[in-house]
Structure formats: structure tokens, C-alpha cells
């Protein structure tokens, strides 16, 4: 096909605004899939995605569309996830496209990820087509929403197309709009090869399957390739395009999106963001890669059975191929043995990785309470040299007496909410040490509140609380801002007088006593009575701030039941409880696995 008849675009939107449903309609209208084969959200092919109704990975699919004038176009559609944790997936997808459909729910209006995604697309210089979806809903308020979109993008309100991804209304006009507004790919098929890896998956039979967008040059089946960043060389054994499955082709050339397979067994050789060129006649320089994403939340992930350590490592290796943002390094805990300190983008990301380890790899794991990454300034006595220590595991916090200052990550948070809930939201943010920045009305009913918040205060349950104090109407987006000094201390938990590394946490001094008391109490509930009396203490430095005692007795303590609404942290706790009630020997004391997450149930 001639590049002038190719359109590479993606659909971006806030979660639930209808991306996957629109993708279904496009697949149907273009005859890519027959009605018979169409399931809802066809592109969400991971089990986990179906169950949760959310898109986790970006998906690419190629469609053919013939206009009324009889011209046939090739569309490469890249579906993207909408949750804040997965912004990095969106930014990758955008790199492979010339245009983006920005979908907005006509009833909900602009939400936090509508804005952040629009900015991502603007940064990449994409042609943005704003589209109002769900106009079939009786509660849709298209005129108001169109006005706020005009405000956001400068697109005249009356020009904004109104569709229903559910009924198909307006979808044909949208296809025409994509053809007319999204520029065809530029690039020269005769230049040296430059293809950008925007995703890759691990296939146990074929090795690494690379998804790439060719910017310049032509790749033929059998060509010798070079991966510019990793300096690896492989032959392109199979090339293809992505229909609903893989479809082999002989050539991928400038403008095309497709997959490449080359017996690549080492997953680290195919890094997302890397450029593929030819071994002979290589390109001079690589395509600028993606912004490297940094994990924000860390947690210890340990196999329940120490024998599974190597299996856990290879599972994490494989997950990392799909997920450049996942980091891990080995750690040893006196309580939990060998495991990894794993870095995640956020709690949802962490939950998903845990579930995938369980489902796809059959691993039984224990996780410790998540924490952010701290920077600690240590001053040696009698020495002016001050060094910054990076701490992503509370048990590695320097000694209390050596610490000069502790810095924690702050984020800029945008919260969009109907005005009647402003009071609740402000109160929530103040409780979480938030600093008010400003507020701005998006339309007559919705307000964008800006706060600066410590990341540590929002990683656990902020999102759930935000939803509950706004009856589900608030949406949140945040981005890392800077490290700031805070009065933080390490709270050490001692069981039977022994500090337990996997239980220590870092908290603000103002909250330390309260958290210490509650945590000790919780642990008392979770730790079954032993044959002897077990003291549980919480301390800051040498100072004990709370003490409880598990009395000597044999009887089992019945587990507490949870009722009420299921928040994310509760789900985590329940998940943990589901697992076999294996005990960990800590000194002479048997500690159940769920005790390691006790702090999550401290309110
Ligand atoms: P995504 O998170 O952006 O991928 O959103 P989905 O495509 O999963 O859609 C979220 C929900 O909105 C689903 O229950 C869809 O059936 C529903 N939905 C999507 N588009 C429309 C529409 O045009 N009209 C109505 N009434 N519902 C829609
Ligand atoms: Mg979706």
C-alpha cells in the first residue's frame, strides 16, 4: 500500500469513556471482524482485562476501510489504557501514531485523564480529533461538554462530532474524519531502516515478539536486523501485521505498523523505545526513545516457598518485557527470606503484577506493605560531608541518630469534581498533608482542584476515599513534582524484642504515635497466641511508642470479617488472606502472612 492511504491513530480517553467499545465498532464497520466473532471489548484479550473491564496493555490492530468514493485506506488503530498508573502505555502508543481520537463521555464531561491524555498527544504533535461519545444517554449534556472541549483544545464547539460507540451513530462520519484530518505517515522507504519498538510480548514458543512502527526504510523477511540501544543482532524470521491475530507479510515499510519475530530468547534485547535498523547499511542515529518511566511505589515480593525464588525471578523477567516500568532487584529479609524489591507505578499496577504472578505463573507470593522512595541526608559526626542515601525499603533506613533530613516525593494532583463536593475533597487533601494550589471551573458544574500532595499519602487508599467522598464523581490525575523535606521517621516493629524488618514503615512524625499504637494492636489480633507470652512493640529510634502483648495460650483466634464497601486496600488484604495461612517463623514466634500487611488495615 501507498503511504498516503495509511492512517495510524489511537483512541485516548478517561477510563470508561468508551475507547474499547469504539474500537469494537471500528472493527465491525471496517469488516475486520464479523458480528459473530465480536465480543464486547474485543481487544481486551487478557483475562484480567475482561474481568476488570479495563484495558491494561495497548493493543494494535490493522483495518481496511473503503470510502464511498471507492478509495481503500489502511488504518492502524492502537487502543490504549486510561488509568493513571498506565500513562506510560499511552505515551508509547502515541509515538507510533500521527493522530489521536480524544473520546469524551457526553454525560461525564472532561475528566482528569482526558486532560492529561490531551496534553500527552499535544506534546507529540499529534492531530487530535475530539469526539463526544455516549450521546444516546438521556443524561448526556453534549452542548456543555462541547464548550469545555473548545476551552481545552480550541476546537470550535459546533464542529465537535457526536457519536454513540454503543449504537454506532456517527461512527461512519468519524471514519471519514480520521481520513481527512489525520495526516498520512511521512518517511522514506528507500532510506536506511528506522523502526520504533512500541511494545513487545513474550511468546513461549517464538520468543520475543516485537511490535514496531517503521518510520524510514523497508524491512524484508529474512533481513539481518540490529537493535540500536542493546547492540543485538537478529534475523527477521517472520514479519506481519496485527489483525485480531498475527498475519504474516513479507515486507514492512515506512509508515507501517507490524510485528517482528526473530528467535529472540533474551527478552532484555528488545527494549521498548529502541530503534531497529539493518545490520548492513544501518541508520546513523536512533529515533529518540520514550521518556523513561520511573517506578513510584515499592514493595517486597517474596515467594511463599523459598524454593520458588528462581521461578519468581524468571516470571518477573518475562513481565518486564511487556512492561518497561517494572523494576526489581533481589533483597533478603530476615523475616521473609530471599525475594525481590519490586518497583511499580502505583497500587493498581502492583495489584495487577501480583495477580499475573499468581495466574500466569502459578506463583504463591507474599508482599510487604508498599512504600515510596525516600532520600535521606546523613551526616557523619564531626564531618561536613553530607550524602544522600536512596531508601526504597524502610528496613534500610539509616540509624535514627545519623539522619539529618528525610525527603519524600511530592506530586501535583488534579482532581475534577462536581462543585458540591469541593468541601469534602479539600478536607481529604488537608488530612493527607496536601498543599492547596488553586481551583478552576471547567464548566458551570465541574471544578478542577489542584493540590500538592506527598505521594506516600495517596498510594494506599486515596483514590478509593476520593471516590467515596464524592459518590464516585471525582477523578484524579497526578504527576511527580519534586522531592521535599518532611519530618519523617522510621517506625520499627519488634516482636518478642526482635526488630522485624518486613514490618517497619516510614511515617510522618505527627502520625507516628497513633500509627504505632494501632499497628501494635492490629498485630496483636493477627498473631495467634503462642505457648509463651509475646510482646509487640513499636519504636522510633530507641524510644518505644506502643506496646501490646499476645498472651500465652493455644486457642486459635478467629479471623475478623470485613463488611461494607470494598476498597482497594481491603481487596489487597483479602487477597492475602485467601492464600494458604502459611506461617513465617520470626525468631521463636509464628507470624501469619497477613500480619505483614497489617498496616494497611490501620485507619
Ligand atoms: P474504556 O474504559 O474507555 O475502554 O470504556 P469501555 O469501552 O470499556 O466502555 C465503558 C462502558 O461504557 C461500557 O459499559 C460500555 O458499554 C459503555 N459505553 C461505551 N460507549 C457507549 C455509548 O456510546 N453509549 C452508552 N450508553 N454506553 C457506552
Ligand atoms: Mg478499555
Give a concise summary.
The protein is an alpha+beta fold. Helix 4 links the parallel strand 4 (99-105) and strand 5.
Give the DSSP E fraction (strand runs of 2 or more residues): 25-35%
Strand order of the largest sheet: 11-10-16-7-8-15-12-13
Task: Characterize the overall form.
Answer: globular
Arithmetic mean of pLDDT? 85
User: Assembly state here?
Assistant: single chain
**Helix share of residues?**
10-25%
Q: What's the helix count?
A: 13
Q: Write out the distinct hetero groups bound to the structure.
A: guanosine-5'-diphosphate, magnesium ion
Main sheet attributes: strand count, strand direction, barrel closure: 8 strands, antiparallel
Low-confidence stretches: 49-58, 554-565
First-last Cα distance: 60 Å
Structural class: alpha+beta
Catalytic activity: GTP + H2O = GDP + phosphate + H(+)
Enzyme class: hydrolase
Membrane topology: Peripheral membrane protein
Keywords: Cell membrane, Elongation factor, GTP-binding, Hydrolase, Membrane, Nucleotide-binding, Protein biosynthesis
Can you give a write-up of this model?
- This protein has 603 residues and is an alpha+beta fold.
- 23% of the residues lie in helices and 35% in strands.
- The protein has an 8-stranded antiparallel sheet.
- The relative contact order is 0.08.
- The model is unreliable at 49-58 and 554-565 (pLDDT under 50).
- The structure holds guanosine-5'-diphosphate (GDP) and magnesium ion.
- Magnesium ion (MG) binds next to helix 1.
